[in-house]
Design a protein that fits this description.
The protein has about 450 residues and is mostly helical. The chain is built from 19 helices and no strands. The chain has a single domain, classed as MFS general substrate transporter like domains (Growth Hormone, Chain: A, Up-down Bundle), CATH 1.20.1250. It is about 80% helix and about 0% strand. The termini are far apart. One of its GO terms (cellular component) is plasma membrane.
Length: about 450
């Protein structure tokens, strides 16, 4: 089941980057330039950020399986539309719709793992699941590079159509069963149609997701995830524009080979990253005499987010800027930070599930909402920034962002439990006050009658 969820989650991220290697070809066909096509890719990332606040609550109400089925069919249909797009406007619309549907696989898959795995096993399962979401962005440009070297860029989206059609078939088989133990829509039996609409809107209102950010620890976890995803897309987006002139590469396939370095790193990280996070949790449970504190999980991400990835980013950026180290330096740094990212994401995602039991899809939706907004910003600004200040200084900004996020994660380890308890007390007090006011109003109406 985890393997199938990982395959489904592979689709939207691979689509986000597969067109990168074909950017000049797409721009030429639609009589525009690469900057405009990259803006389309940035809006794709924006929609990947916005859609979780819709699909997250929906999966709590109607079930994980139903949301997966609907979005898989729509994703396949929009992929066909992208492949056939006759002009830039149609290409833009279908790309955006594809992004809106595709993110559901990622957040619903994470929620499914939260439904069926114990806390001490979740990070390992999430590590395998997230391999699809991370290998996708790295493998996409390589696949796209091969395709545009030998045939039309539209074949990229026909391949995407075939893969998404296969995923859609999987969602209708027993291989992907329902994992949520209780669908909220089942509570509405006996309600009038008007009452159902009112309650349903309250259940699926996207604001439900955003309200979770009253918890400072969730803000910190989202910031940390965003720093790592910013780093990923700010590296992957400009490879063809940055490395082709630096190393005198002449074809999309040659630059596409560079994407295999982080992709291989993600695959290697899958084998150890999640397991290491669970190992750290178990070690701290023993230290605390059997007591599990969710914040202990974050300790596994600190050295990788605060030291390994920033160091790789700086070495990569300034190596390219100063023309030092050649191809081996670029490949090694891309690979090492690919491994390091798989020590960060399982820990951060699992922490969100641990602290919000029963609202797994919503808390993951909130995390992905913030995460992909930063991915959108990275995709949109990286090329203009590199042209304005150079690869070295842009990499320095990225490294500082990662270090600040690591500091926020460390603060969560120290004070996160207190933050959670304080917000829980405030919410209980507020709920009690609202109930008291409601009872008084009912009493006044009864006396008036």
């Amino acid at each position: 089941m985890v393997a199938l969820l990982s395959f489904c989650s592979f689709l939207a991220p691979v689509s986000s980057t597969s067109v990168l290697a074909a950017t000049p070809e797409v721009a030429r066909e639609y009589a525009t330039d690469g900057t405009v096509v990259n803006v389309v890719n940035a809006v794709y990332m924006l929609m990947m950020g916005l859609s979780p606040v819709v699909w997250g609550p929906m999966s709590e109400v109607y079930g994980r399986r139903r949301v997966n089925q609907v979005t898989a069919v729509l994703f396949c249909g929009c992929s066909i539309g992208t492949a056939l797009a006759p002009n830039l406007a149609a290409f833009f619309v279908f790309r955006v719709l594809t992004a809106f549907e595709g993110t559901a696989f990622i957040l619903v898959g994470s929620a499914c793992i939260g439904d069926i795995y114990r806390p001490t096993e979740r990070a390992t399962a999430l590590g395998w699941f997230l391999s699809g979401t991370l290998i996708g962005p790295a493998l996409g440009p390589f696949i796209g590079g091969i395709i545009v070297t030998y045939t039309s860029w539209r074949v990229i989206f026909w391949l995407q159509t075939g893969l998404s059609g296969l995923a859609a078939l999987f969602t209708f088989t027993p291989l992907l069963p329902e994992t949520i133990y209780h669908r909220k829509v089942d509570d509405l039996e006996g309600y009038s149609p008007r009452q159902k609409l009112t309650v349903l809107w309250r259940m699926v209102n996207p604001v439900r997701v955003l309200r979770l950010f009253v918890y400072p620890n969730l803000i910190a976890a989202s910031l940390a995830s965003s720093a790592v995803i910013w780093n990923m897309y700010s590296l992957l987006t400009p490879i063809r524009y940055v490395l082709n002139p630096r190393f005198d590469l002449t074809t999309p396939m040659q630059s596409g080979l560079f994407y295999l370095a982080p992709g291989t790193g993600y695959l290697v990280g899958t084998l150890v990253g999640g397991r290491y996070a669970d190992h750290v949790v178990k070690r701290w449970i023993r230290r605390r005499d059997g007591v599990r504190v969710p914040e202990d999980r974050l300790r596994s991400a600190l050295p990788f987010m605060g030291v390994v990835i920033p160091a790789c980013v700086l070495i990569y950026g300034w190596g390219i800027e100063k023309e030092a180290g050649g191809i081996p330096l670029a490949v090694v740094t891309l690979f090492v930070q690919g491994v390091a990212q798989l020590f960060c994401f399982p820990s951060l995602n699992t922490y969100c599930l641990d602290v919000m039991q029963g609202r797994g899809a919503e808390v993951i939706a909130g995390n992905y909402f913030v995460r992909y907004l930063f991915a959108c910003a990275a995709t949109a600004c990286v090329l203009p920034a590199v042209e304005a200040i150079g690869v070295g200084w842009f990499s320095t900004i990225t490294a500082l962002f990662l270090i600040v996020s690591t500091a926020a994660t460390q603060a969560t380890i120290w004070w996160g439990k207190g933050w959670r308890e304080r917000v829980d007390r405030w919410r209980r007090a507020r709920r009690l006050a609202e109930q008291t006011v409601a009872r008084k109003e009912l009493g006044c109406r009864a006396n008036g009658a």
